[in-house]
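Request: How about a record?
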Amino acid sequence: MTGSFPYRWLIEQQRLGNALCVVLDSENELPIRQALLKNSRPDQYLSVYGQTLVAEFADAGPFVFIFDRPSNESINELLNRPDSHWGWLASLPKEGLPTLVEHWRERLIIGERPHQVLYRFHDNRVLARALRHLPVDAYPAYLGPAISVCYWQDKGWASTYNPAPGTYPAPDSPLWLRVPVTPRQAMQTRLLNARRFLLAEHVQAFATLAEQQDPEAWLRVTLDQAEAWRWQAPEQLEFLLTQCLQVPAHVFASYWQVRPAESPGEHFERVRLMAAFWQGDASL
């Protein structure tokens, strides 16, 4: 990657005296994570999900690694395949790793219980879209202690400088949560949150299903059905996921079908009541 945009960015940031780090989607980059772990001191990496409400998912969550050499072999492997969406690069003040991780931990969980979701800050597409839509004066609250970030955006590399790196409280209504998302990104977020819900609430049933068929394909079919019915509220998605675990082949009883002129809300309430009745949990 010598001479490439990200390599030149790394060289320049190091010349300025900044620490170099990679925010890594370790769930999809386990070999790279293991290679970085093997060659890093304990003070050179942190799990973002660790010491948070989602610490049980730390092994599948993002890790942040400090690295000393722009020519690091593992980093070069990532830079050679930017469209695999492995994460992004950042420069930090020396000893700034704990501050960066704490910054994102404070912005990690969105919404109120029981309908909380995880913000996929470590996805380069999420970062790129936020920076494309945010005003420059909102960069500091979003990027925190990061001095500069370098990331793959659509079909090319980009970098953004933070005008005021530092420690900022998480806003009550973050502007970056109002950024429009693409259908692909929305589906990825729904898949992640659906998997998290099933592992937290129905792990045995989900494990049994995974023995019989591809769980990712099953999740996609289920979420496609939710989209077709316009069931997007958390309680609607959780109901559909729970019910579909009982009929993994997605063969629904006739009362599940949408009636003429029935709104998504009316459809959901009717099906919920009918399902409870047939399962002996309610009377009509």
Q: What stands out?
A: The beta strands are 19-24, 45-47, 63-67, 87-92, 109-110, 117-118, 148-153, 156-161. The chain is about 45% helix and 15% strand. The longest helix spans residues 183-201.
